Amino acid sequence: MAFASKTVFKAASGITRVSSRNTSSAPKVALLGASGGIGQPLGLLLKTNPNVASLALYDIANTPGVAADLSHIDSKAKVTSHTGPNELHAALEGADVIVIPAGVPRKPGMTRDDLFNVNAGIVRDLAEAAAKIVPKAFVAIITNPVNSTVPIAAEVYKNNGVFDPARIFGVTTLDVVRSQAFVAELKGLDVNKTVVPVIGGHSGVTIIPLLSQVQPSAQFSKAEIEALTARIQDAGTEVVKAKAGAGSATLSMAFAGARFVQALIDGLQGRKNVQCSYVQSDVVKGVEYFSTPLELGPNGVEKILGYGKLSAYEESLVQAAVPELQKNIAKGVKFIKG
Ligand code: NAD
Ligand code: LMR
């Protein structure tokens, strides 16, 4: 694999951490849900990313203000503002990467699945437009419940006859970011060089950190593994509780989203790299969508790398995740198929 970056950390698992870098070609990124808690800081990070040439901000409210604000930053990306369904076409036209954080966040006491009733329709409608206008663009879905919204988008693309499983991604990068932060802190590792693969899905028991594959290699006691796993699986809820009704993770999600978009752009421009993401996959029998390390390249997912050798504990986590994933996926598929 070729990397243009001067800072690449590659673990035995194959997961790479890449720093941002200048490139000559010029992708357009469309950010749908740009005025929200995630949308605004993610817009800031994308606006200041030297690899982004054009940044289309789309929302149903407040987009002109966010766009005016961001457009005063002296970085390369050209910012455009698009408000409401009549302007969605223009936002999407020519996009190479579409990022979707549109939708409602959790309040304390809610599960991600409780967001389904509102967010499923939002993702369906945005996916419908994307499938018609830019069917080849990479789509990175942040909107929860990710375990269901990715199958929803996939079914919409199938209905339009343009589904390419290599181009639709559920963003699980925040689980990786959190795992790397928590593990580095606990073990006194250099966080910039710490790599933790996270597989499965993006909710509760479906979030499976592979602590047996941490790089640089680290030893954990059974109690440490159980406590870390529980914290990683519950980290979103930790933030929801701390925000006490004001929403869920926004700043760390924007950081994670920006990292994932950079990885997609790297792939698009021929700098293959490895990231975890929730995509259509057959690595686990009976589960149609699953996150594992993937090789990203010009066509999106170039290779599903699988998850390697698991510890007995991790095997048990995968078994526990299967029925929940199956339920979440079936719910998303049914929403479109009826
Ligand atoms: P938010 O309420 O602050 O922002 C959501 C934005 O979406 C708002 O600006 C709203 O106007 C916009 N919106 C609503 N309907 C829309 C539509 N039809 N088209 C375009 N925009 C629309 O919420 P947030 O904190 O930014 O969270 C957004 C979503 O991201 C939630 O579903 C949340 O659960 C999810 N999330 C996912 C992860 C992850 O790891 N994948 C992490 C954090 C949050
Ligand atoms: C997260 O993991 O922070 C997000 O999925 C938001 C949430 O509802 O927890």
Search tags:
338 residues, alpha/beta, Rossmann fold, L-2-Hydroxyisocaproate Dehydrogenase, Chain A, domain 2, three-stranded antiparallel sheet, 10 helices, disordered N terminus, binds nicotinamide-adenine-dinucleotide, binds (2S)-2-hydroxybutanedioic acid, L-malate dehydrogenase (NAD+) activity
Mean of residue pLDDT values: 94
Bound molecule kinds, no repeats: nicotinamide-adenine-dinucleotide, (2S)-2-hydroxybutanedioic acid
Q: Look at the helices and sheets and give the structural class.
A: alpha/beta
CATH superfamily of the largest domain: Lactate dehydrogenase/glycoside hydrolase, family 4, C-terminal
| Beta-strand percentage range | 15-25%
Distance between the termini: 43 Å
- State the helicity in percent bands: 25-40%
Low-confidence stretches: 1-14, 17-24
Strand order, largest beta sheet = 5-4-3-6-7-8
Query: Oligomeric form of this entry?
Result: single chain
Question: Would you state the CATH class of the largest domain?
Answer: Alpha Beta
CATH architectural group of the largest domain: Alpha-Beta Complex
Give the tally of β-strands: 13
Biggest β-sheet, characterized? 6 strands, parallel
Instruction: Please give the radius of gyration in angstroms.
Output: 19 Å
The SSE order reads: EEEHEHEHEHEHEHEEHHHEEEH
Shape: globular
The CATH topology of the largest domain is given as L-2-Hydroxyisocaproate Dehydrogenase, Chain A, domain 2
Q: Count the DSSP helices.
A: 10
How many domains is the backbone divided into? 2
EC number: 1.1.1.37
Binding site for NAD(+): 33-39, 59, 119, 142-144, 253
Domain Lactate/malate dehydrogenase C-terminal: 172-335
Organism: Panagrellus redivivus
